[in-house]
Design a protein that fits this description.
The protein has about 400 residues and is of the alpha+beta class. It has nine helices and 19 strands.
């Protein structure tokens, strides 16, 4: 996509259209009978496939993604530490649902609680962490909602840390996918917990054997697909079977969110079908390179007659395989470009189109500072500009 040209007039728009040499056919997404779903590339922010992805749904234990996100922020901000002991309250012990078998007045480290929450989906662990950070679960939910708003999760509201049902507790498939992507991006040091397949809590003993209880990660895709390395399951009677699954193959990561499936097998098969579809028919490509010269613009009243037009940001997109060579680029110059020109002054715009639709735009900046010309040169260009 790199171009080398000199643009002599600020109104000129130059288009580079490649010649198509192949026919690209992308099939429809797989048919999935669930309440909602989305297939999402977190690096490019691309929705590859979706159905009812913004509808409000009951997230069940997928709520614990935001609980973890809030806990990770508290660790990052040094409000708590992984080795801190947490005293388990009566409420945390008795909250019900999935459990890591905490007992009242037990002291458990933050790290143990994180593993109990992520790997075995312990509601007791979620509540204990919430109380440790915010004093009570209601206040912790305020933090959760503040982060949801900051992340642009427009169809989400939390009332608790575990995902137990409440009419005011909801999210959407797209919001969940965005949150999962932020966890992966912002907290890579904690992401490994989502691929951990078992967890042994030494303080919880089997009543028959007296040995520590070992529980398994409820995300069965971890044992079925080697590329899957997270993230979270969820289930309640009214929410149905929900799943967030993420996988990385080569340099591309995708996230599949499935909600409202009728069985565990159905949600697993749906997520697998979505991931396979995304990796098979789509690819992640850099379509604009930061620091690349995309052309030259004429300079008026400057010490140089022209200046290179450079993109300052890298733009990556997820597109159908085989479509990269069909991308058209065009350059518009903002002008006339008159010296002096600082480095932070946009002097043009680069637009990328695919099948007639704009897929990316970015401002172009001067490749170097252009100072004003001498007095005579300045006057000469001023005269010429009168005829432009």
């Amino acid at each position: 996509m790199k171009t080398s040209l000199k643009i002599l007039n600020c109104l000129i728009v130059i288009v580079f259209a490649p010649i198509a040499n192949s026919i690209v056919i992308v099939p429809k997404p797989p048919e999935i009978k669930v309440e909602s779903y989305v297939l999402y590339n977190p690096n490019t922010g691309t929705i590859i496939a979706s159905e009812e992805e913004t509808n409000q749904i009951k997230p069940a234990s997928i709520t614990k993604l935001m609980t973890a996100y809030t806990v990770f922020h508290a660790i990052k901000e040094e409000q708590i530490a992984m080795g801190d002991p947490v005293r388990v309250s009566d409420y945390a012990m008795s909250v019900g649902g999935s459990t890591m078998f905490l007992n009242q007045y037990m002291d458990v480290t933050v790290e143990d609680l994180i593993q109990g929450m992520i790997i075995i989906s312990g509601n007791d662990a979620s509540v204990a962490l919430a109380e440790h950070i915010a004093g009570n679960e209601e206040t912790f939910a305020i933090y959760m909602n503040m982060y949801a708003e900051a992340l642009g999760m427009k169809n989400t509201n939390y009332t608790n840390s575990s995902g137990l049902e409440n009419e005011e507790h909801f999210s959407s498939a797209l919001d969940i996918a965005m949150l999962a992507g932020r966890i992966i991006d912002e907290f890579p040091e904690h992401f490994h917990y989502y691929s951990q397949q078992t967890y042994q809590f030494d303080q919880a003993k089997d009543l028959k054997t007296g040995k520590p209880i070992v529980q398994y990660n409820r995300n069965r895709l971890l044992r079925r697909d080697s590329s899957v390395d997270g993230m979270k399951t969820g289930y309640t009677k009214s929410a149905g079977y929900c799943l967030v699954a993420t996988a990385q193959r080569e340099d591309t990561r995708l996230i599949a969110v499935v909600t409202g499936a009728k069985s565990s097998d159905e949600r697993n098969n749906a997520a697998t079908a979505l991931l396979n579809y995304g990796f098979r028919f789509f690819e992640e490509r850099t379509i604009i390179e930061a620091g690349t010269n995309y052309g030259e613009a004429q300079v008026w009243k400057g010490a140089s007659d022209s200046v290179s037009m450079v993109a300052m940001e890298k733009v990556e997109l997820t597109i159908a395989k085989g479509m990269y060579d069909e991308i058209e680029s065009s350059i518009e110059v903002f002008g006339p470009v008159i010296a002096p020109i600082p480095l932070d002054q946009p002097i043009g715009k680069l637009t990328m189109k695919l099948e007639g639709k704009v897929i990316a735009e970015t401002d172009l900046f001067p490749g170097k500072i252009i100072e004003e010309d001498s007095l005579w040169g300045w006057l000469y260009d001023s005269a010429l500009l009168l005829f432009e």
